[in-house]
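User: Could you check the structure of this?
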Amino acid sequence: MTEVLGDLASALAAKMPDLRGRLVGDQPLAPFTWFRVGGPAQAFFSPADEADLAYFLQNLPGDVPVTTIGLGSNLIVRDGGVLGVVIRLGGKAFGEIAVESGSMLRAGACAPDMRVARAAAEAGIDGLAFLRGIPGSIGGALRMNAGAHGGETKDVLISARGVDRSGNIRIFKVDELGMSYRHSTAPEDIIFTSALFQGRPGDPAEILAEMDRITEAREKSQPIREKTGGSTFKNPPGEKAWQLIDRAGCRGLVVGDAQVSPMHCNFLINRGAATAADIENLGDEVRTRVKAATGVELQWEIKRIGVKA
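Assistant: Sure, the predicted structure tokens are below.
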């Protein structure tokens, strides 16, 4: 299988002589996820910058599947791995954060949300502190309208920039992204590269103090030091997912070496030796039990990609 996996990367490299980023085959993906599970990518590409990403996509055959991953905090990579190309943005080109006039801030798609929150606070830009409570990157926040502690990405977003499957650079205003609770209508083929945010003038000390409160609240209520993927299921209208899970008797439930967190029922944990199948099967068992006990059908918030082993 490894030989087959390596062929795609070699073929693409030969087709794209001017490529500057890192392109490899049979790349393990578990190290790139917070759960630390999952199989390899058939081909793995980390572009040098936006122009390199556009060049790659312009020359990529249309029948080759593309999957984009970020910090891997909200992700299960299945044990059979991911076919086609997995693209992961990284480095200075996609992680830069720049403060602009008028209480605006521009951030690369791979910049961690918490780092963007801190940069805004230190610049006296209020309104972005909620990002401190989101364990992901800006690209993921754009894709799913990430939110926490009373704030959502759509509340502060002006525009987002990205590259489509044909290699075209596209810019979207916030009202073109159809953002709602944990969702956006952004085209599936768009790979976001950066975003422009609008805050408001604030006192750095007060904003940093608010961020400290958010951090303290997370540490007290969430298993953030475990191998986890953040909130597993979306909150149904008028309900809290964790309360439904608790009501169904799933707190501490175990499948293989995966467990529903005893601290927070909407978090799943890899206790050390779990497979991706253990975690996904545990999530499906929770959904089944919640449906039977409450009549509510929970929807996954964690993204699941790849082939089951």
